Known about the structure:
Helices cover 26% and strands 28% of the residues. It contains 20 helices and 39 strands. The strands form seven sheets. Strands 5, 6, 7, 13, 14, 15, 16, 17 and 18 form a nine-stranded mixed β-sheet that branches. Strands 1, 2, 9, 10, 11, 12, 19 and 20 form an eight-stranded mixed β-sheet that branches. It has a six-stranded mixed β-sheet with strand order 30-31-32-29-23-33, with helices on both faces. Strand 25 and strand 26 form a beta hairpin.
Amino acid sequence: MKSHAQVVVIGGGVVGCSVLYHLTKAGWKDVVLVERDELTSGSTWHAAGGMHTVNLDPNVAKLQQYTINLYKEIEEISGQSCGVHITGGLMLAGTPERLDWLRQAHARGRYLGMEMEFVPIDEAARRFPLMEKKYFIGALYDPIEGHVDPSGVTHAYAKAARIQGAEVYRFTQVTDLEHRPDGSWVVVTDKGNIHAEHVINAGGLWAREVGRMVGLELPILAMEHQYLITEEIPEVKASKTEMLHVIDFEGEIYMREEGDGMLMGTYERAGVPWSERSTPWDFTHELLAPDLDRIAPSLEVGFRHYPAIERAGIKKVINGPFTFAPDGNPVVGPIRGLKNYWVACGVMAGFSQGGGVGLSLANWMIHGDPGADIWAMDVARFGDWTTMAYTNAKVRENYSRRFRIRFPNEELPAGRPLRTTPVHDRLTAKNAVFGVSYGLEHALWFAPDGTEPIEEVTFRRSNAHGTVAEECYAVRNTVGLMEISTYAKYGVKGPGAEAWLSHLLVNRMPREGRIVLAPMLNANGKLIGDFTVAKLGPERFHVFGSGPAEEYHMRWFEAQLPETGVVMRSLRSELVGLSIAGPRARQLLQSLVRDDVSTAAFPFLSFRQMDVGMIPCKIGRITFTGDLGYEIWVSVDYQRALYDVIVEAGRPFGLRPFGARALHSLRLEKSFGTWAREFRPIYGPLEAGLDRFVDLRKNDFIGRDAVLREKETGPQRRLVSFVVDDAGADCIGDEPVWHADKVIGWITSGGYAHHVGKSVALGYVPAQLAAADSGFEIEILGERRPAALAPEPLFDPTGARMRG
């Protein structure tokens, strides 16, 4: 066994072997994989091996396409068959709501290059004769679905990696990991030690144990998962072609051909975790005891929908553990604070996603960037609030809902409430309907008095629509109050603070008492953040950003910190906020402070310490509503008092609480983009329309050379606003944009702009079409709706309201 290596991959399942292969493919040859038993010994060997391209996140869907197309490549290199069966697949809808969901998936696939098609139920039954068509109302066909041989795929990855220079050590258990001061690692095994520059935790069922070696509690949990294999089915045996891969959402089951019978699996609602606290090291090629009673409700539906399966009888039942993250997506990337420690785990759909995970992680390690927008898989989407108990609750919920509809306005209840602010009870008393952001409860809208604070889930407009309109009216005509504690808050101080922030962010830094808006780029000139920066003093700054991206940004900030001169930390648990916005906001604030808050004394983008009544606050003249407004920040112990003072003083001014739904509506009519929708690591600042916040007079900010190249060549696409002929359903994001009967772009976010009374969508189109005067359509729930470009914001295009 080698004593030194550039990379040690821990775990010999399909994911670990994919990572190993992709590292060698990209040119890193001094890499080894260590597996405590035989390859595939965890979850891989008993997987059903299904593969598909559909995913709710289009960026993950792209990587699933890549994975499926990769199998031919690794077969050719290794000489090892992957047992690929591209059968095509049907997704069957039994309800109108599921049909809407399939319409969305179909539309999303258009700009991803997926050639899916809706087929009539009679045609679906012809292609899959086992189904009882009376239970279904729609079917979506995907030609790129099927299944593979799990063992064959894993060994093909491993063999191809060995051919390209890697080494694989089987029956070698990692017992400890030691982090050296230079950032390298000593991988301690029962066969000797390996000194490595990088370590990758691809431990699968044992990823938690490998994480605990370095003090991590990774948010993953194994669930028992069952599928059955039937006896011979005459229709299957007689078929001249292999049976299609089928997902039956109402039955919560999936199927494919196996021999002369069928394999049928289910994600039952009464899911059971396996080995909740720790995974035994001696668990190898083992299965768990079948429990057909637990999946009986799903089987009963399946037998009704596919009578031939019931007639055939059950030949074998497989029950084995698979790992899941709280949201069902993989957990991938570098760990903040642990130099050169990487994770690739929680990959439940390993034969759809394993190749994409390997590619992304190899790119990330070698080039400093995953090469794609993989926010949906990034380990940094989880924070310290994802404890073992939280993970348990969310994984159970996610497992039970794997084939159920997640509506765009649906807030799932498991693991909540967890993080709350001091005014949570005040908002509850106002009949708030809550959502959750990075584990923190926040008000979405406020239900009318005497009604249940519950939102009807739908793909169209919900019972919130009218109330949100009233909240928007208050902001645009009187004054509204919103809690803004969901923003991420950071404190930066020290003699090097300003120079460091100037290097990190693309805009100039503010003068003392002022605010600037400043995007953040990676070295490739792509957007990795969008911040508000306030200068408190000569060496003191507050930085505000997206709450869900806190861990993601902290990881980046800390990686860029100099050894001395700058102290930077999260203020998440110290600073909370309230915002007042609307034409009477200044009058309200002036009634509470002694300072002059007129425009002359406290202009737009000012930031100052003030006492609101008896409460010491930091106040910025800025609001995401695009109206006159203020953000008021206080330490946690003052927030309740601040809230009460504002509410009492606001009565004469018509103060009304508003929530995130209204804020979304208000920002759309201002054409304001937001992180994770309009601003993501696949867009440059010029594409995103952030030109005015890029100060090219600075010669040293990260990504400057790439911005200059983008400016010289011109952006390939542009962020634009549309007014949509909506027919009662608004864009939510990821809808295709059509022009001249071709799909040419996509929507990033949308909704109803109540103040202007129009359905609005933001999205990206080719730069040459960004000024087209006609010809656009946006596909909403399967219907192409006319859309017109809005060349300027629909509300206050000159910004007079927010600056006045």
